[in-house]
Amino acid sequence: MKVLGKVHHNYLSLPIWIRTLITLFVFLIILIYAQNLLIFPGAVLSILESTERNSNTLPERVEGSFITTNDGAHLEIWRLPVKASQKVAVIFHGNGGDVENFFIYQRYFHSIGFTSYGFDYRGYGKSTGWPSERGLYLDTDAAIEFVLGKENIEASQLTLVGISVGSGPAAYGANKFQPKALILFAPFESLPAAVKSTPLLGFLHPFTIYEFPVKQHVSSLRKTCLIVAHGKRDQVIPFKQGDQVFQSYRGSGFSEFLISETAKHNDIIHKIHPQLTTTIQKCSRKV
Q1: For the chain, which terminus, N or C, has the lower number of CB atoms within 10 Å?
Q2: Homologous superfamily (CATH) for 41-286
Q3: What pLDDT is attached to residue 17?
């Protein structure tokens, strides 16, 4: 205690400008080391809320199961089937919630004739572990391989859907598996680019610990359809980010950028679903 008291006394005896610099430096260090919590807040909520769902509380018609990744994580995955349909979509949810919070996307794809899969990244919901960029890529591999085996289809028949931060693993999966279509809602070019575009924390972008290079992955797509949807009122990931992702596409497949003048970050699916349905039909005819 005497040592701490002496340190405190010495600190207070410093000029105010030096104390301000020290305080800012300590704050910066805390932000850098706490960014994992900032990038994956849904994982923190999963710990605090302790998800209780089981087979009796799943949404109607949903088939729940667990899959194992190559490094031993156990992921919860939901299947919402459409009988006799060869159209299959895998949903990569955003960072603010789990598979249940983003179930609306599964319901939408079910409504247009897709068997849909949603799954929780490690650390989310009832999935084990803690999220990281490498971890989410392993989760992506496990989920896609499970779906291909379960549905007995080729990757070229699959549609991957990334929402916000989910654009990172979805774009990675599209680059690796080259599916029929990649649909991105409010994507970013890369995580550092997204941080740089943030008014208050933009100066931290050189210290971002994860990359999630969505734009780079999209530029490597060959025949995969690309559909990007972004709202001009998005205050979390600026509209320009989605535009840059769309412009990076160099493949030979169908591509379209769906723009909403009124959508913010979390209501994009509500704003553009009629146009999205038409665009997905165009993709199906041209692939």
Answers
A1: N
A2: Alpha/Beta hydrolase fold, catalytic domain (3.40.50.1820)
A3: 67
